[in-house]
Amino acid sequence: MVKEGTVGPAEAIILLAISNMARIFQPYPRSLVELCGSAAWLAPLGGLAVAFTGVYVLSLVLKKRPGSTIIEITEQACGPVIGIALNLVTVVFFMFVCSLFIREFSEALIIAALPSTPLSVISSSYLIVGLLGAYLGIEALARTARLTYLYILGGIAVLLLALIPQWNINELFPLLGMGPLNVFGLGTYSTAAVTEIIFAAVIVQTFGGAENFGRIGSRSMLIGFIFLMALMATTVMTLGRNASSEATLPFYNLSRDIYLGRFFQRVEALFVIIWSIVGGLKIAMTLYGASVALARTLKLPDYRPLIWPLGLAVFVTSLLPPDLPLAIKLDMEFLRPLALLPNYLIPPLILAAWWYKGRGKRAGG
Amino acid sequence: MNILKTLLEVISYRENLNREGFVLKETKDDQKDKPAEDKKTTSPQSGKRSFKKPVRPAEINRDEHLPDNSSVSASLRENKKIIEKLYGLPDNKDIIVRDLVIGTKVPVDCFCVFIDGITDKTLQDLLFQSLMAFADEPAPADKGKLAGVVKDALLPGNQVKIVSGFQDILDAVNYGDTALFLEGCAEVVLVETKGWEHRGIERPTTEQIVRGPQEGFSETIRANTALLRKSIKSEKLTTEFMVVGTRGKKTVAIMYLRDLANPDLVAEVKKRIENIKTDYIADSGVLEEFIEDNPYSLNPTVLATERPDRVAANIIEGRVAVLIDGSPFALVMPTTMYEMLHTGEEMYHRWQFGSFIRWMRALAFLLSLLLPGFYLAVVLFHQEMIPTELLLAIAGNREKVPFPSVVEVLLMEFSFELIREAGLRIPGVMGSTIGIVGALILGQAAVQANIVSPILVIIVAVTGLSSFAIPYYSLSFTLRIYRFIYIALGATLGFFGISMGIFAQVALTANLKSFGVPYLAPTGPKTMGGPDIVTRLPAFFHEKRPDYVNPQDITRQPRVSRGWLRRKGGEKNG
């Protein structure tokens, strides 16, 4: 049995919330504006509702075996062959998230702060901190999140509030932007796909098991989505919907626009610190998730021997896309549909399997 | 003839047969440890690594002359022979063996053993007077009971005990006691006559404060335990003694409040100290390395302080203090990083002043760690952050400097470290004078010679001052070393590098533990820390002891600790 340590509820909420909001630093908000126009800030509402449903379904699954994680439960419900195959989907999902985050964060840093630095140097740095964080374990990651969250969330709040003088509220109209289908249909799909609630189900035993899952999962989703909505609204109001849909990194563009007098301007480099720490946390968490999920699937006593091989695989994969546009395309067209599998499709499947098994037993009885 | 012979000796050549002079040859023990290179050919298993069974330190250091605390004989002559052998007499000159006759009605031959210089001469005079001049009791018929009679009726010493094992005698005599061997008695009377030259109670040298007790620990363990007893007048305060070291034995005192400290914590501290296998522990710093959780981390995880009031305050919170003979520092465990940024003095000032000082210190902590790295990151990678006027000023000053910024920073940082170290080593008043003069002259000269820019002198000076504002020397040292890492990160990857450094450092530090307590408690993990982390709220709000110490009694005072605010009926005054 993999030993993971213990994490307090507050730490777990913060860790998962930071994980959920990591995408706001990436090109993701741009695609949302492109999809929903001036109503980009409303799109996360549908995603939040879906995420809450996902948390509820997962909590039902986890309550079937209160002492186990989603990995063991999947195998118990679906049998060893299908169970292991489904668990491997989760592992692959974490690895792809990690890989694409390394690539997108590295590319974003090249655009924002280090134009002359080779991609491999930045990616290697992310890999090193990811390996370190995953090796130290969930306790260290949760404490790091707990110790840095004030700076991260405070920094984002300062960024958003510092742009108040440049807000143009008219940019939020028309209220439904590109139409309700785009906002509440495609927008919901797009925002729900980036939640990664499955990570909470993998580490569920570290924060008190199934009974805390619903509370912690839903609160972390709420924080993550509130920040996403706030960022989307600020982006549209500050940059305008046309410029927002053209900016590769809306967060970076916003930080460049801060002007609070002659001395306090062009402070985007300060936000690089927040940006990098969130990136480091996210990469370490997903690498940790992949290692722990695989160790549990293979019934290994320790996850740490897997960190280096998985880390190397993730690093190599992150270098495969030849440029940022292709990485973004992979994210949109491959990762988001893949995300639906472990987050929203496998849990109902497990519930159905339990129900089917139970029906069989009842019929046999 | 002699002159001729001398002359010939001067001008003639003779080979120097004793060319090497004195050579310190290897001992048997050294040869045992040598790799078996020359045995390769003879051993049938020369390809394999030979397995060597580890030897316990106690076995290495076992005194061959003294089989397991052998007992004293009834024969005075025999005992004397053994003592002479054990102490290497007569070569060992500060061991005194004094023959005397006890002036009882039937005189009894005896001898005393003590070490000159670590015994109190006044106490010894009293001892000899009592035995030789004022002993008018009749000697007991059974000489075997003589030690008991001497202890009960003849000796006025406040700590007298009877032992029969030589190891006990040696331990006591080595620690300043006097052993009295009696003819016909197979027991020895040990009289406490400890008394050696020592430093008195003085002001702490590394933890000076403005308000609060000005006493510091000294090198004498008994004086240190007494200082703590003086602070905590409680029958629950427990002092346990242990001996550490096989060759040079050091007394270690463990002090805690019996009804407050967590028994598991006390047991863990005792277990770690008991299980130290070494020949000698010179100071509390060495003991700290032996017992701390993470000796490979740069961060200290045990608090060392020379102020009794601070140790007392920690004991009152349920912690355990460890004192070692010969060290003016007490170790306190468990501790957290936040406590290393406290001095205790904040509690003696008004709470607003204490809080202000702590926030200043928190700023100093960040500046000391990050300022040079930040400067390099801004200058090399993020110039757009600097307002135009400042940028022009910096560029203008740097124009004549031939070195890259990172060389400039490293040059100044190393110079500063050198001045600091030299100032510490140069004796007396000269040290600080040279430190200040060195810094001023060096900085001024470096700027005039266009080796460094003036802004960098300011950066390094502010960093240095911030470093001095960290109250705990070990933590300040940690920051000094980490600072160089941040300089490297800032110079190579700008803010991104610094962020990666911060992430790694926070994760590594959050992973540390001090005797089972997370090092960054009560913030990482979040526990109920009380109103005393950075902001120090008024004393009457300190209702609970720190939760992470897990004391037996968490409540320090009731919710309404200022009872005078309540009227007799229970209503609030005023």
UniProtKB/TrEMBL annotation, chain A:
Source species, domain of life: Bacteria
Keyword terms: Germination, Membrane, Transmembrane, Transmembrane helix, Transport
Pfam families in the record: Spore_permease
Keyword Transmembrane: yes
Example of a GO cellular component annotation carried by this entry: membrane
Ranges annotated as spanning the membrane: 39-61, 81-102, 108-136, 148-169, 189-210, 222-240, 269-294, 306-328, 334-356
Bilayer topology annotation: Multi-pass membrane protein
Cellular compartments annotated: Membrane
GO annotation terms (biological process): spore germination
Family: Belongs to the amino acid-polyamine-organocation (APC) superfamily. Spore germination protein (SGP) (TC 2.A.3.9) family.
NCBIfam families referenced in this protein's UniProt entry, alphabetically: 2A0309 (TIGR00912)
Protein name as annotated: Spore germination protein YndE
Native source species: Pelotomaculum propionicicum
Automatic annotation (TrEMBL), chain B:
UniProt feature, compositional bias: Basic and acidic residues: 24-41
GO terms classed as biological process: spore germination
Residue ranges of the region described as Disordered: 24-72
Transmembrane segments annotated in the record for this chain: 362-381, 426-445, 451-472, 484-508
One of the Pfam families matching this protein, by short name: GerA
Domain of life per record: Bacteria
InterPro entries: Spore_Ger, UPF0353/GerABKA_families
Alphabetized UniProt keyword annotations: Membrane, Transmembrane, Transmembrane helix
GO CC entries: membrane
PANTHER family recorded: LEUCINE ZIPPER PROTEIN 4, SPORE GERMINATION PROTEIN
The family this protein is said to belong to: Belongs to the GerABKA family.
Protein name: Spore germination protein B1
UniProt organism field: Pelotomaculum propionicicum
